[in-house]
Each structure stands twice: as C-alpha cells, then as structure tokens.
Write a structure and sequence with these properties.
The structure is a single chain. This protein is of the alpha/beta class. It is built from 15 helices and 23 strands. The strands form 5 sheets. Strands 1, 2, 3, 4, 5, 6 and 17 form a 7-stranded mixed beta sheet that branches. The protein has a 6-stranded antiparallel beta sheet with strand order 18-19-22-21-20-23. Helix 1 packs parallel to helix 9, helix 3 packs antiparallel against helix 4 and helix 3 packs across helix 7. The protein is globular, with a radius of gyration of 24 Å. The model has no long low-confidence stretch (mean pLDDT about 95).
C-alpha cells in the first residue's frame, strides 16, 4: 500500500482548487514545496506586478492631471510605499498556513525528485503515491549572452526586490514581461530601453497590434529597439551595465544602471529526475501531457506552466479542473476544448482570445474581419484613453468567432465576454442582437460586426 493516495509536487495555482477536493474525498495527500507557496502568480507574477501597474498608472494620471483640468503642480514617487503595498498584496502566509494545517495533508517544505514511477524522495525520506501530480512551473530563461555571468542581471522575480527606482533599466526582450515592467518603471521615473531581436515587439501578435502597443510605450518615453540582437554585456563598475547589440547598422552600446532579462521561460523539470519515473518531455523540457493532463505514465500528471500548454494562472487553474474531472469522474473537461485567452497588462491593456489574424490566414478558413480604432469610440474619447484598436475575426461558414483582440481601455475585462460565447459555438449574429450598456467601450462590439469583410 502506498504512503499516499496523491503526491502533489509544487504549489502553483491549481493547488488551492484541487487539493481541498482531494482531501474532501478522503484522499491522503503529500503536498511538497521547496520554494514559495503559491507559485509565480502570487509571488512574482500576476499579483505583485499588477499591483505595481496600479501604482504606475496613478503616477501617470497625476502627470496627466492638467488634461482633465486638474492641476497637480508637484508629485513624487515614494518607492518604499510602492513596494510595501506590493509586498502586502503578495503576502501568501494565509495560503501557506491553510495548506500546512489542512486535514488529510502532510506538508513537506522540501524539494523533491523521482526515485521511481511511484516513489519520490523529499528531503531524507522516500515516499510513495498511487497518483503523482507535478505542478512546479517555470523559471526565467538565462540567455547565453557573452559576459552574462559577469554582470548583475535581474529576472522578473529579482526586479521586484529593488528598493529604489533604477536610473536606467535596460530590458532584453520585448514581449509581455518586458513591456509590462518597462512601462511600470518608466512611469515610476526610470529611463527605459527595450531591446527585442524580432522585427516587432510581441512577436506572437499581429503587426498592427504590435505597432499600436509600441506607440503606447514610445509615447510614454520608452526607447524601443527592434531587430536588435544583443551581442555582449559588461559591468565595468557597480551601477553601470553596458549592453552591446547589433541593430542592423552596426554595433551599438547602451549603458544602463540595471539589466532585466525577459526573453522567455524554462520548465522547472531538471531537478525532478523525470527519467527515473519514465516521464517524457519535449525538446524544450516541458512535460508532455494528453487531453486530461496525464503524462505517458498513466498515474503521473503535469499541471500548469510545466506542461507547456499554457503560461497563465487561469490555464493552470483550468488544468487543475480538467485533472479533477478525470480523476474523480466529475465532469468532461478536456485540454483540447480550451480556447486560448489572455491579457497583457501594459496600460491600456491587450485582451486576446482565439486566433490572431495571422493564424486565421494560415488556417485556410473562410474568415471575415472587422477592426475599429479606439479613437473612434466615444467612451474612450470621454476618458481621453484613445490608444489602441479592436479586431474581430469570424468564420464565414460557421458564423462563429475565431478570434478577438482588444488593445485599449478595459481590454482585459472586455475580452472575457467572448469566452462563453465562443465555448458555446454561437453565431456572431446572436451577439449582434445584444443590447449593451451605454456609454461603454463594450457597447460598440456588436456594431463593429457590421464592418466584417473577407480577409484580403
């Protein structure tokens, strides 16, 4: 008989939704966490960064006060208060105590690795489980740049430990993390340079979305360099980091006070000894899973970022619900039924669901598209928040939405209204009949559908 019904390794965001269900069903659970309880979201992802986004926006609006007839002659940034507020929001002591004291759970504050497909070593003990769940997340990718081992570079977690605003923050990587932090620290008073190797920011997004996002950043004073390959970094003295890159016109060097690497993530699998359990990974190290989050070993599952099937808190939680449906025979969720949806929290934010325009073109489907700049939407003009655009993609044959992007005020909230509609596979014509509150940005969405035209 195994020591536990379930061994749960790592405490990402599916933990709080699934482990109580397991114990409620009478299962004996070993919960293992060698780092911070709660995973990246609570500790150095969503919660702290979005708290800082709010502080940065407050500073931005103070600066814009005269645009609204509000004169603010002087304002200053109290970084200690910004960080105190952020740290209060990411305090996970309550969750930690809840999990540690939960009936039916043995909590191990240790790192673990597989000994066999049913056995895990945690600290100096070897425990066994009938079912094992890996929920260990990802870490920042350290890129092999010449000189990187000799400079004090930061990842997204390290940046949250600063106690002062950087004089000049140089960011390598122009995707979601780099752009969010870039805008945050620019608004808090840093000079900011973003260096991106691809020809546009946010390489996974459509060109018009990326261009509009870049305009938001550059209009706020951020120096953006795209098509720029970093060649080397050096730190001749404390507080001086030299970043040399090739932007197509020869080598150029930018000198900053701090360096953030935001070029991607790697799965936390190396220390798990997955080979001892026979668990397969792909070429990037992500654990391969099937439609119910099961690995190639029937009783071992992988949830959250570590499986490469999503990089967001909401996908991690959905993984947990999919696992539970299968494990407890409680429902029929499947990974393949999940529609990609996410937001990028620059201000104004980008909300995205389903396909991009590029993906729609590559799909070979008969797709219609409509767009509307935020500058033509009354509510955005009333709020003087006219940056960005809305893009809607519809399958002409099925009449279903295939993708929507809302870059602009409220985009992170607005995008959610499409999720149940797309899951239910309803016609866009039904959406067109909906009556929505005036004055809002969302009220224009049905009307934008009148502009649907075939992709060129």
């Amino acid at each position: 008989m195994a020591d536990y019904d379930v061994i749960w390794i790592g405490t990402g965001q599916a933990t709080g939704t699934v482990v109580p269900r397991l114990t409620g069903a009478g299962k004996r659970v070993a919960l293992i966490e060698g780092g911070e309880v709660g995973g990246s979201c609570v500790n150095y992802g969503c919660t702290p960064t979005k708290t800082m986004v709010a502080s940065a926006r407050a500073a931005h609006m103070a600066q814009r006060g005269p645009n609204f007839g509000v004169e603010i002659p002087e304002y200053s940034i109290d970084m200690a208060t910004v960080m105190k507020r952020m740290n209060a929001m990411r305090d996970n002591s309550g969750m930690t105590e809840w999990l540690r004291t939960m009936d039916g759970v043995d909590f191990f504050a240790e790192y673990a690795h597989f000994v066999s497909d049913h056995e895990v070593q945690v600290g100096d003990r070897v425990i066994s489980g009938d079912t094992i769940v890996v929920h260990t997340g990802t870490s920042a990718l350290k890129v092999p740049i010449d000189g990187i081992d000799d400079v004090d570079w930061l990842d997204n977690a390290g940046l949250l430990e600063l106690d002062a605003v950087p004089d000049h923050l140089v960011i390598v990587g122009g995707s979601y993390i780099g752009m969010e932090f870039g805008q945050i620290f620019r608004r808090l008073g840093s000079a900011v340079t973003i260096i991106e190797a691809a020809s546009q920011l946010m390489p996974r997004e459509d060109g018009d979305i990326a261009a509009a996002a870049e305009e938001i950043l550059t209009s706020g004073g951020i120096d953006v360099r795209t098509g720029a390959e970093v060649r080397s970094v050096a730190q001749p003295e404390q507080g001086r980091i030299e970043v040399t890159f090739d932007g197509g016109d020869g080598a150029e060097t930018i000198v900053g006070s701090h360096l953030l690497l935001a070029v991607g993530r790697v799965p936390n699998t190396r220390a798990l000894h997955l080979d001892a359990a026979g668990v397969e990974t792909n070429e990037r190290g992500y654990i391969q899973v099937d439609d119910v989050l099961r690995t190639n070993v029937d009783h071992i599952y992988a949830l959250g970022d570590v499986n490469g099937e999503g990089a967001f808190t909401h996908t991690s939680v959905n993984d947990g619900e999919t696992f539970w449906d299968h494990y407890a025979e409680a429902g029929d969720r499947r990974l393949s039924d999940r529609i990609p949806i996410y937001a990028m929290y620059i201000d104004p934010p980008l909300g995205r669901i389903g396909m991009s325009e590029r993906e729609a073109r590559e799909s070979g489907r008969n797709v219609l598209m409509a767009t509307r700049p935020m500058s033509e939407i009354a509510r955005a003009k009333e709020k003087d928040e006219t940056a960005g655009l809305i893009k809607i993609l519809v399958d002409a044959d099925t009449e279903e939405f295939v993708g929507v992007a809302v870059l602009g005020v409220g985009g992170d909230e607005i995008i959610n209204m499409f999720a149940p509609f797309m899951l239910a596979k309803q016609s866009f014509r039904l959406f067109r009949k909906a009556v929505m509150v005036h004055p809002t940005v969302g009220e224009l969405l049905p009307w934008i559908l009148d502009d649907l035209e075939p992709l060129d």
